[in-house]
C-alpha cells in the first residue's frame, strides 16, 4: 500500500461484518464481494455501542477556512477501510460506524459540512486522496514520515501494537520471540512490515526459524481474528484498540499477551498542502475543548488512546 499503514491496518474494498461474533462456539463472520456483511451476536459477544453523539454547532472561524468548492458541495467525502472495529466497520445493517466515523462526522459539523463515509480498500485511500476522490481519509492511519511525503496528516489519537492468542495461550507464545510461529496480520499494516523488516531479520540473526511467509497476511482485519480463533494461526498482531475490541467480540476465546508497544498517533489524511488541513486540525482541537472528543472515545471504549492536542505532519519516524 502506499506507505504501509500504522499499527493498524488495511483491508480490501469489501463491506464487512459488524464485528467478529460467536455462534455455536465458532466464529461467524460475513464479508463477501460487494454485499453487506452481517453477524449474529450472542451473550458472549460485546454489543455494538448505540449511543447517539449530539450534533455540534459549526465554528464560523473554522468554516471560513473551508475552500469555496467544498462549501458549495456541503460535504466531506471520507475514505475508510471499514473492517477495523471499533475504529471503522459496518454494523449488521451495513451502516458504517465506529470511533473514526463519529469523530469524522463531528469534524465536518464544526466546519459547517456533513460527512459522507465511503468504504475503500486501505491501500486505495491515499491514492484516492491524491486524485481528489476523497477529501479526507480516516482509517486508523499511523502518522509516519513516509506517509507525510505523500499527504498531510492531522493527528487525533494514539495507538500501539498489541498481540493476542487463543485463551490460555496453549502454544506458550512469548511476544518477544515469535520466531517459527504462525503470525496473522493484516496486509499493508505496520504489523505486516514489522514481521518482514524487523522480526524475521532478528530471527535469522539469532539462528532461529523465521515466521512463515513473513506472516500470514489477510486483506481484512476480521479475517485476521478469524484465523486466530479457528487455529489456523497462533498469534495475531494488530493495533491496540482493535485487539482490545476483538477480545470482547470473541466472547473470551482470545487473550492478550505482553504489553502494547510502539505507540504512535493516528492521523486524518488530506491532500499534501491542503488548505483544509488547518481547518481539520482546528476542528479536532475544538472537539477536544468542548468534550465531544472524550464522549466519542468513551462510547467506543478507546479512551486510553486519547491525546491532548492535534498536530499537522508531526511524525518523528
TrEMBL record:
Annotated Solute-binding protein family 3/N-terminal domain residues: 75-304
PROSITE patterns hit by this protein: PROKAR_LIPOPROTEIN
Database matches in SUPFAM superfamilies: Periplasmic binding protein-like II (SSF53850)
Signal sequence annotation: 1-31
InterPro entries referenced in this protein's UniProt entry, alphabetically: Solute-binding_3/MltF_N (IPR001638)
UniProtKB keywords: Signal
Keyword presence, Signal: yes
Keyword Signal tagged: yes
Any Pfam family matching the protein: SBP_bac_3
Stated name of the protein: Putative amino acid ABC transporter substrate-binding protein
Species per Swiss-Prot/TrEMBL record: Kitasatospora setae (strain ATCC 33774 / DSM 43861 / JCM 3304 / KCC A-0304 / NBRC 14216 / KM-6054)
Amino acid at each position: 500500500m502506499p506507505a504501509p499503514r500504522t499499527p493498524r491496518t488495511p483491508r480490501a474494498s469489501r463491506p464487512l461484518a459488524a464485528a467478529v461474533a460467536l455462534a455455536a462456539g465458532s466464529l461467524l463472520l460475513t464479508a463477501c464481494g460487494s454485499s453487506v456483511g452481517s453477524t449474529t451476536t450472542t451473550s458472549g459477544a460485546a454489543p455494538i455501542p448505540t449511543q447517539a453523539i449530539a450534533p455540534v454547532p459549526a465554528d464560523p472561524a473554522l468554516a471560513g477556512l473551508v475552500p469555496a468548492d467544498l462549501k458549495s458541495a456541503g460535504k466531506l467525502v471520507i475514505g475508510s477501510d471499514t473492517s477495523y472495529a471499533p475504529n471503522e466497520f459496518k454494523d449488521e445493517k451495513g451502516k458504517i460506524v465506529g470511533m473514526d466515523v463519529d469523530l469524522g462526522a463531528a469534524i465536518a459539523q464544526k466546519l459547517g459540512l456533513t460527512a459522507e463515509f465511503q468504504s475503500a480498500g486501505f491501500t486505495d485511500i491515499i491514492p484516492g486522496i491524491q486524485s481528489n476522490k476523497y477529501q479526507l481519509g480516516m482509517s486508523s492511519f499511523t502518522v509516519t514520515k513516509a506517509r507525510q511525503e505523500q499527504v498531510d496528516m492531522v493527528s487525533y489519537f494514539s495507538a500501539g501494537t498489541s498481540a493476542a492468542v487463543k485463551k490460555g495461550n496453549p502454544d506458550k507464545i512469548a511476544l518477544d520471540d515469535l520466531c517459527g510461529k504462525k503470525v496473522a496480520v493484516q496486509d499493508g499494516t505496520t504489523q505486516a512490515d514489522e514481521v518482514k523488516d524487523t522480526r524475521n531479520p532478528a530471527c535469522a540473526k539469532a539462528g532461529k526459524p523465521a515466521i512463515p511467509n513473513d506472516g500470514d497476511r489477510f486483506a481484512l482485519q476480521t479475517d485476521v481474528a478469524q484465523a486466530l480463533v479457528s487455529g489456523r494461526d497462533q498469534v495475531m498482531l494488530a493495533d491496540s484498540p482493535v485487539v482490545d475490541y476483538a477480545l470482547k467480540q470473541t466472547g473470551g476465546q482470545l487473550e492478550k499477551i505482553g504489553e502494547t508497544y510502539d505507540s504512535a498517533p493516528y492521523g486524518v489524511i488530506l491532500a499534501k498542502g491542503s488548505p483544509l488541513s488547518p481547518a481539520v486540525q482546528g476542528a479536532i482541537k475544538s472537539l477536544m475543548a468542548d468534550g465531544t472528543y472524550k464522549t466519542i472515545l468513551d462510547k467506543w471504549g478507546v479512551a486510553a488512546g486519547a491525546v491532548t492536542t492535534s498536530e499537522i505532519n508531526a511524525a518523528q519516524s
